[in-house]
């Protein structure tokens, strides 16, 4: 339906527009924190010329537990961010937010589509090693 325009919506819209004028520090911090946790887990696993400080051997139970923890962490952050985007989208729809060309409408379709595509791209490009990162980077933008 059409959003009801009232003073409360107007103030909420002004607050959102003001918030979006600044760099998304909270979003950047979530990404950095997620990256740091994944990095620490990978360092603890060791590999190649760098032995694991926890004596984790490739293919061992500890190795697969570390990978499961890392996957759980990434999925947890993914669903956390998904919930934030869904709430923001619902609020913007309710108050009649003026979307511009190029804005992503984080509806249910987009919240399923983009993470799925990015995960699949990451999986397949990851099999290509460092060269894959060169390909995946622009695709993620």
List the main descriptive attributes of the protein structure presented here.
about 140 residues, mainly alpha, about 70% helix, elongated
Explain this structure:
With 141 residues, the chain is mostly helical. The chain has helices spanning 7-20, 25-45, 61-95, 108-126, 130-140. Helix 2 (25-45) runs antiparallel to helix 3 and helix 4 (108-126) runs antiparallel to helix 5. The radius of gyration is 20 Å and the shape is elongated.
What's a concise summary of this model?
This protein is mainly alpha-helical and 141 residues long.
Shape: elongated
Helix content: over 70%
Beta-strand content bin: under 5%
On the 0 to 100 scale, the average pLDDT is 86
Helix tally equals: 5
Unreliable stretches (pLDDT < 50, length at least 5) are none
Look at the helices and sheets and give the structural class.
mainly alpha
Secondary-structure element string: HHHHH
- Computed Rg: 20 Å
The largest sheet is: none
Ends apart, CA distance between termini: 32 Å
Number of strands: 0
Topology overview:
Layout: H1 7-20, H2 25-45, H3 61-95, H4 108-126, H5 130-140
């Amino acid at each position: 339906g059409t959003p009801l325009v009232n003073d409360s919506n107007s103030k909420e819209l002004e607050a959102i527009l003001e918030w979006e004028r600044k760099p998304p520090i909270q979003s950047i911090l979530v990404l950095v924190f997620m990256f740091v946790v994944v990095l620490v887990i990978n360092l603890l696993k060791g590999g190649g010329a760098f032995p694991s400080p926890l004596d984790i051997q490739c293919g061992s139970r500890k190795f697969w537990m570390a990978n499961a923890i890392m996957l759980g962490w990434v999925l947890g952050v993914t669903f956390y961010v998904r919930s934030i985007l869904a709430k923001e989208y619902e609020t913007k729809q309710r108050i009649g937010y003026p979307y511009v060309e190029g804005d992503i409408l984080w509806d249910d379709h987009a919240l399923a589509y983009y993470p799925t595509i990015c995960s699949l791209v990451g999986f397949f490009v990851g099999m290509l090693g460092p060269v894959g990162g060169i390909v995946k980077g622009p695709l993620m933008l």
